[in-house]
Specification:
The chain is built from nine helices and five strands. By secondary structure, the chain is an alpha+beta fold. The chain has a five-stranded mixed beta sheet with strand order 2-1-3-4-5, with helices on both faces. Helix 2 packs across helix 3 and helix 7 packs parallel to helix 8.
Length: about 220
């Protein structure tokens, strides 16, 4: 079984995380089983608990499986919650900046500038987010090709640009305004709409659209 576990790790490393089944992903999280119950069997029993439910708490359900202690139960439950949170933005409809803020708020706490492109469908549903660039404490170099490559591949109709200001001041700098102009020009050529550029901090945000600056940038 140890050799099987090692082979699984090698296969995933070689082929990527789209390769393993859900049960095999659980095997990677669990790491090992017990003498009485191999990790593969524990993973399948956990899959049953996840798929069929019936318990108020997944942790309590996992603890009923022989060989599963609190550490393994919490690790798997935490991984599931992490995945749920990361995917919660998919298909969300964005009509105003406040609709998007919960899905990008984590960047407001970064100590360096992070520039993100949020891709949207024609119905303004989120398709995906892409972290385009990470800069220093007061700037990030933005390449239009990096911003719009995924948008073209995903056939996105629109994007919302988002970046944080570690300084805590949400107002746009001259560089922010100039960058927005360049990106709007590139988007226009590609037939993609830039719906907004939002600057976020821990306590506030600035929307180019709400301040009627997006038309000026276009």
């Amino acid at each position: 079984m140890e050799k099987q576990k090692l082979d699984l790790r090698e296969r995933v490393f070689a082929r990527g995380f789209s390769y393993p089944s859900d049960a095999e992903l659980l095997m990677l999280i669990l790491g090992s089983g017990t003498k009485a119950l191999p990790v593969e069997e524990i993973a399948y029993k956990m899959m049953d608990k996840i798929e069929f439910g019936g318990e108020k708490s997944l942790v309590d359900a996992f603890l009923k499986i022989p060989g599963v202690g609190l550490g393994k139960a919490l690790a798997v439950a935490a991984a599931l919650e992490f995945g749920r949170r990361r995917a919660s933005h998919l298909n969300a409809v964005i009509n105003q900046p406040q609709d998007l803020l919960p899905f990008v708020k984590q960047y407001a706490f970064k100590s360096s500038e992070h520039f993100v492109a949020v891709l949207l469908s024609g119905a303004r549903e989120i398709i995906s987010q892409k972290l385009v660039a990470i800069g220093n404490s007061n700037s990030a170099i933005i390449n239009p090709r990096e911003v719009f490559f995924d948008a073209v591949q995903a056939k996105a109709s629109a994007v919302i640009l988002v970046h944080n200001h570690p300084s805590g001041i949400a107002s746009p700098s001259p560089d922010d305004i100039e960058t927005t102009k360049r990106l709007c020009s590139a988007a226009d050529i590609l037939g993609i709409s830039v719906l907004d550029h939002i600057i976020i901090t821990k306590d506030e945000y600035f929307s180019f659209k709400e301040h009627n600056m997006l038309k000026e940038a276009a």
